[in-house]
Design a protein that fits this description.
Rossmann fold; 12 helices
């Protein structure tokens, strides 16, 4: 299959590109700079110059492919609504190009926003959406697009991670405390980047329109356990912050740190034959590479 991948130069996207190429697919990767284009070519993919703000570039990429994986996202948490709007317009542009073709379009969603007190399943509907990619993609599934959603765990981990966990580590370094909120029993799901990449490939190859897949290998790790490992590796005290103190301590991350968002991927594993094989988040943290500065 010739696959158009947005976010192909990113942390998750570069692993997805490798996974697709290793399985014999061709990759056309969106690149908004010459640097990203060169990295894609070096990896064995074709570069497609464009950006999320240039909807025609997205339409051209989708038109030239047998399927699309959408991973690019503007990670500006200070302007999160604008980032969500950019994401929605991008998915709609990709979808209108694929409409009526039954070609696969895989979009990236999230696992925050359930608050069920138990692990969310693929059949649960979020009460608050971390972003609009999910309903936008599901609407496209009624228009002849084989659109499906990968709800990614809040921590996709591996070497070179620059997501939430490295941010927690950096906050601990700056403040001198490895902190959690309240009793710290709130849970975060996690998935290794290489397992996530295999999930995207399997969902592209076998996924059905309108499906939700969960990219979660660890169902839920207590935030207190994450803070404990950070404290031990940095030789810092581990402490609780009240919800009121959290904003000051964690800055923009305060809205995520206290969330309880466990998620199961049992149905995903059954439906796609996906079986995570890489180390979990705590084992990955124990390897120490997160703490080399
Ligand atoms: N990493 C995690 O822990 C995690 C957890 C949950 C969900 N996710 C989601 O997974 C997806 C991939 O995340 P990631 O960690 O791989 O992100 P990343 O490393 O920050 O990469 C972001 C990718 O999006 C591209 N991009 C950003 N703004 C763009 C724009 N305006 N136009 C075109 N391309 C643009 C970047 O291109 P350049 O190379 O040109 O910058 C890069 O390829 C995102 O949707 C993210 O929200 C990630």
């Amino acid at each position: 299959m010739r696959v158009f991948v947005t976010g192909a130069s990113g942390f998750v996207g570069s692993a997805v590109v490798q996974e697709l190429l290793s399985a014999g697919h061709q990759v056309l990767g969106l690149a908004r700079s010459e640097e990203s284009a060169q990295a894609l070519r070096a990896a064995g993919a074709e570069a497609h110059r464009g950006s999320l703000d240039d909807l025609d570039s997205l339409r051209r990429g989708a038109a030239a492919a047998d399927g699309v994986i959408h991973l690019a996202f503007v990670h500006d948490f200070a302007a999160y609504e604008t980032a969500g709007q950019t994401d929605r317009l991008a998915i709609e542009a990709l979808g209108e190009t694929l409409a009526g073709s039954d070609r696969p379009l895989l979009v990236t969603g999230g696992l925050a926003g359930f608050n069920l007190g138990r692990p969310a399943t693929e059949e649960d509907k979020p009460i608050a959406l971390p972003r609009m990619s999910e309903p936008v993609a599901l609407a496209l599934a009624t228009k002849g697009v084989r659109a499906s959603v990968v709800r990614l765990a809040s921590s996709v981990h591996d070497r070179d991670d620059h997501g939430f966990v490295p941010t927690l580590i950096s906050i601990a370094r700056q403040t001198g405390v490895a902190a959690y909120v309240g009793d710290g029993h709130n849970r975060w799901p996690a998935v290794h980047r290489l397992d996530a990449a295999r999930l995207y490939r399997l969902a592209l190859e076998q996924g059905v329109g309108g499906a939700i897949y969960h990219g979660a290998a660890d169902e839920g790790i207590a935030m207190r356990d994450i803070a404990a490992i950070i404290g031990r590796h940095l030789n810092l005290p581990v402490a609780s912050k009240t919800p009121e103190e959290a904003a000051d301590h964690f800055g923009w991350m305060a809205r995520f740190v206290g969330l309880d968002m466990p998620a199961t991927s049992v149905l995903t594993q059954q439906r796609l034959g996906w079986h995570p094989t890489q180390p979990g988040l705590l084992a990955d943290l124990e390897q120490g590479h997160y703490f080399q500065s």
